[in-house]
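Risk mitigation, structural track. In case the binding assays with pyridoxal-5'-phosphate fail to produce interpretable data, a predicted complex structure has been prepared as a fallback.
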Amino acid sequence: MLDKSPYFFPQLPEITVDSGGQLLLAGQPARDLLARHGSPLVVILEDALRRNCRAWMHPPAGDLRYRMYYASKALLTTGVAALMAQEGLGIDVVSSGEMATAIAGGVKPADILMHGNAKDEAELAYAVANGVGRIVIDNLEEISRLAGIAASAGIRQKVFVRVTPGVRPTTHRYVQTGQQDSKFGFNLEGGLAQDAVLQVLRYPQLELVGLHCHIGSQVLETEPFVAAAGRMLEFYALVQQELGAPLDELNLGGGIGIRYKDSDQAINPAQHMSRLYDFVEEWCTRHGIACPLICDEPGRSIIGETGVTLYTVQSTKCIEGIRNYASVDGGMTDNPRFALYEARHPVAPATGMLEPADQIWSISGKCCETGDMLIHDVDIRALQAGDVLAFFSTGAYTWSMASNYNRVARPAVLLLGNGREGLLAKRETTIDLLRLDNIPGWLL
Ligand SMILES: Cc1ncc(COP(=O)(O)O)c(C=O)c1O
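Fallback model:
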């Protein structure tokens, strides 16, 4: 047995290894958690999550005003919404479903910001009827659509215009959003953003309070955000001074990355925000404009590292000279990130954390699909049926992207605190899977 684990995993006080090589989550052996709650299981470490919320609520020096929204697409249940509301964050939603979840979790509608590049009439009406704080206009069609809905409701809706600033950060192309060739927002280049602002200003039912941009996700450098802020401030000043809109807010989106591997350099929230705040303050002073209220929408960097998914190995297959497969009781149905973009999560054997990682294994999911892999070619100890595998940093964009392919039930999500545990989502059952099915009368 080694005296130190050879596996990379997030350095959180809630993730430890005991002297027998067992993985402990908030002091609880991983295997015991599965015995109590079933396998597979998504565990969210409450203390780490609250710490991250507080780190992102980092107040700027001086008088600069700021507001944080949690990007709920990363992971949302009513309990997650309740925790975010307790921690004082607003919530960014992209659909009526996310909005309903946030409201059911106790988030005040005024603290909700709504995104979406294809919001339909019903979604916009639902948002307006609920008194959602901000709606981010993403395309020309929704300007008149939203104005009509606001007029019928007899309100003036606060809106942002989403701008595509033309910044392409280093990250997977599927999660780049700020480049010219993007389905989101209005491009600065070519004047589309300016046209959108002018159109919004024509409608008295719409109150343009700010501008929004988002450059991408899993970005591990601050400078692309600063570059985007610079472009956005130039446009912000133009909209205020030349188009006469009394803007007061600038939303710089989320997108800050986390460490999925040893060589990733983590971004420190306080340093990141300080760099952005200082840049904005300095820019505004230099150009003689009042500093906007700065908003941000981190998702992954708040909840990503606080999640650990535990699976049980069901079978193994070793093909001499080719590959060793270990198949687990979950897969792309609870974490499609490898299937989507070959994203690699840190993996370790939950009861052999001190054993040498002297073999190479690929971990496959249970679906009838060759692409249903959780990871290829990972260094790990010998695996056999019954072993518990921990996939780390699965808090963001795993369970929230889950599906029922092959009618596989989605796993439970457990909030694990110091000395307390409670489900954020129950495990789906066969009854849940059949709930929406219908047999047309003529088939009976
Ligand atoms: C508009 C918007 N805001 C916020 C986020 C959150 O990004 P992240 O989870 O990378 O912080 C996203 C993610 O893609 C997004 O599209």
